[in-house]
Amino acid sequence: MEAPPLTPSCSPTSLLLRHKNPLSFNTFPRSRNVKTPTNFSIRASSSTSNDSVVTLLDYGAGNVRSVRNAIRFLGFEIKDVQTPEDILNASRLVFPGVGAFAPAMEVLSKTGMGEALCSYIEKDRPFLGICLGLQLLFESSEENGPIKGLGLIPGTVGRFDSSNGFRVPHIGWNALQITKDSEILDDVGNHHVYFVHSYRAMPSDDNKDWVSSTCDYGDKFIASIRRGNVHAVQFHPEKSGDVGLSILRRFLYPNSSVAKKTGEGKASKLAKRVIACLDVRANDNGDLVVTKGDQYDVRENTKENEVRNLGKPVELAQQYYKDGADEVSFLNITGFRDFPLGDLPMLQVLRYTSENVFVPLTVGGGIRDFTDSKGRHYSSLEVAAEYFRSGADKISIGSDAVYAAEEYLRTGVKTGKTSLEQISRVYGNQAVVVSIDPRRVYINNPNDVQFQTIKVSSPGPNGEEYAWYQCTVNGGREGRPIGAYELAKAVEELGAGEILLNCIDCDGQGKGFDVGLIKLISDAVNIPVIASSGAGIPNHFSDVFTKTNASAALAAGIFHRKEVPIQSVKEHLLNEGIEVRI
């Protein structure tokens, strides 16, 4: 996988993985199966006693902070792999693979880690692979390939088929079908676990002895494997709440009775997600607060005109996790004018939140290329890397995606240099959300504009029966000559894995989502769409899920002001026959 240049001295890959004590790649032999990488490093740290230590194979691509936090939460210390011998000497090894298949195989090959990993697993030593850490065990992958894998399990990792109406990436909480005694899955029962991936391995006669559970998403794919002390899962236990922690606990304490029952679940298929959103900005005193706008205006209608303060970000995120939020999204709503890498309070919010919140975290705001006052250029990839290292699982791109889509529609050329293309290529499109902030423009005749229109349910101010949705940038302050439909189609082609669909007209009104807009966009793309703006009561969530193809619905103010608890929304959806995680 070739990455675009950042500066004359370093590639995006090396920029992402740079560490104060990088391991030299010239030390270890190259594997037979793959080519040499560009620049990767393995992170090093001090060791502790083997009784309470987990050896972690972290090659630096993506967010593994939550895996670290979950392991520490369960009472273990972490030793990072520094040499192949660290793998061979591990008492228990966790491999949380994140990113794309090819560069991961390259780093395993170049450092000699691949041979050590195969030797460790073949000796039936305690091993847990997560997501890509499962896929790499197979013979090969079609991702940017074919690329040879470690070859321990028969089979090829292929892409989900989106032609049958299933959205790719597979993002969200899905059910497992446990096929044999797996030990670590003993507490899962009928509960959902969290998946986020575009590629999967399929069960076959050749690998059936390995398969411990499957999952249905268009086809039945391998959700987990187990042979002896060797385990690997396609889903993310560190992002699967209490159920995921129970899986990690079972692996870390295999002969103990400490495992906690998680109660009865009702999981049968992919659940609709309920997401809590926290709009974060500094108030006039410089303190980072959660706020909420009324059509994007976050100041109170008082003499002081102060920023609306609805709480502290870390505390609210932890509360929403306890309340059952399926994801937590942080939007740095002043990110478009702030210096992103200097935005240390926001990075701290992510770090502290990820210590105790074990569901996916998304962060948006200020993810773009820029040059600082000293003339140093920072790529959007470097900005995103800082967010991922701080605990984000997904990043949300707003204004920069609009500009990229406009240029792509004008030229028809994918340059590979836009923030959207660079980040999705390095981290995978499942890690990239595009946030669309449109505003209704009413018209009398659809032929009056070049953009896709809808017939509105309520006429415009002058009796107009149609509208198109003009995209905006800079926090809704500037309209652009591109419609929401056109933008959504373009960013999907450029590498977006998910769309967060807002509506300025509905924001803060509490009268329901813009169902017409959400249906227009969710019918137009093959990636998941998150409905946002306008939720006021639980019925608004069931409306958007029954009338559109939205995969998730997001709310902010009604949760912050405790007008509608998250659990009430989920109970309502369950009563309406809509699958949710409980």
TrEMBL record:
It comes from Medicago truncatula. Keywords: Amino-acid biosynthesis, Chloroplast, Glutamine amidotransferase, Histidine biosynthesis, Hydrolase, Lyase, Multifunctional enzyme, Plastid. Its EC number is 3.5.1.2. It is found in: Plastid, Chloroplast. Pathway: Amino-acid biosynthesis; L-histidine biosynthesis; L-histidine from 5-phospho-alpha-D-ribose 1-diphosphate: step 5/9. PANTHER family: IMIDAZOLE GLYCEROL PHOSPHATE SYNTHASE HISHF (PTHR21235:SF2), IMIDAZOLE GLYCEROL PHOSPHATE SYNTHASE SUBUNIT HISF/H IGP SYNTHASE SUBUNIT HISF/H (PTHR21235). HAMAP family: HisH (MF_00278). Pfam families: GATase (PF00117), His_biosynth (PF00977). This is Imidazole glycerol phosphate synthase hisHF. Belongs to the HisA/HisF family. CDD domains: GATase1_IGP_Synthase (cd01748), HisF (cd04731). IGPS catalyzes the conversion of PRFAR and glutamine to IGP, AICAR and glutamate. The glutaminase domain produces the ammonia necessary for the cyclase domain to produce IGP and AICAR from PRFAR. The ammonia is channeled to the active site of the cyclase domain.
